[in-house]
Amino acid sequence: MIKPTIIYIAGYGFSGSTLLERSLADNIGVIGCGELWRLKEDFQDFETCGCDQNVETCEFWAELYEIFKANPKINNLELMDILVNLKSQAFLIDNSKTSYARVDRFKYLASKYNFKVIHLIREPGSVLNSSLNKSNSNNFFVKFLITLKVIVHWNYANRIIYKLQKQYNFELLRIRLEDFLERPQNEIEKVYTWLNYKPDSINSKPIKTHQLTGNIYRHGELELQKSSPRRSNFYSKIMRIFSFRAIAQYNYKD
């Protein structure tokens, strides 16, 4: 029996995972499901899907939501198993990324499904700038603490993936956000070839998917734009100094 396929987008936040998911999905053979690690919480919160329907009226989530209402004590992994069985003919994208709290998911998913991991990487200084912009703080101390946090978590999220690959033996494909924005059609074709997925046509324009958890960009129209020139500042310089090994590994040298 062929195992259902989970496409897991790993890496750190602020790296363009919502954009990549919406670009890869075609809602036919590849379906974007958002961050499945908190599926139960999304049902409890009655979240609005990326298709702009709520979980009760969305044609993708409605059946699973009814199962959840009948058994509210069900956990996230059990919900995900049911989802995969309901949608077993499609590639399902799990955009949960990588963090300390989600490492155990790799063991479970790799043992049960045809588990394929996309390592999405973005230049670390740009990741930090996005994180600082979201904080909307001009306080030096606050921004410095955010910088230290991002240094630790960005390096962990991007390095642990390769240890997990050796441990659980899953297929891995690295995508740099900058390459994707520069050549979206080529990068999508690369992913589809890796998946052995052959749609009638490939459209690189982001579409509405069935993401629940995620940032505001899961809703509305999105346009692919080339990366802006990297903005160097005091904080991003610190970020790059403490990420020098990863910068060399992922070819982000100046």
Task: Please characterize this protein's 3D structure.
The chain has one domain (5-123, 169-230): Rossmann fold. It is 46% helix and 11% strand. The protein has 254 residues and is α/β, with parallel strands linked by helices. It has a five-stranded parallel beta sheet. The model has no long low-confidence stretch (mean pLDDT 91). The protein is built from eleven helices and five strands; from the N terminus they run βαβαααβαβααβαααα. The chain starts with a strand and ends in a 5-residue tail after the last helix.
Write a brief caption for the model.
Helix content is 46%, strand content 11%.
| CATH architecture field | 3-Layer(aba) Sandwich
Number of domains: 1
Radius of gyration: 18 Å
Q: Within the CATH hierarchy, at the fold level, what is the topology?
A: Rossmann fold
User: Would you state the CATH class?
Assistant: Alpha Beta
- Number of alpha- plus pi-helical segments: 11
What gap, in angstroms, lies between the N and C termini?
Answer: 48 Å
Overall shape: it is: globular
Order of helices and strands: EHEHHHEHEHHEHHHH
What structural class do helix, strand and pairing data support?
A: alpha/beta
* Percent of sequence in beta strands: 5-15%
Mean pLDDT: 91
Mind telling me the CATH superfamily name?
P-loop containing nucleotide triphosphate hydrolases
Fraction of residues in helix: 40-55%
Q: Spans with pLDDT under 50 lasting ≥5 residues?
A: none
Lateral strand order in the biggest sheet: 2-3-1-4-5
Total strand count, please?
5
Largest sheet: 5 strands, parallel
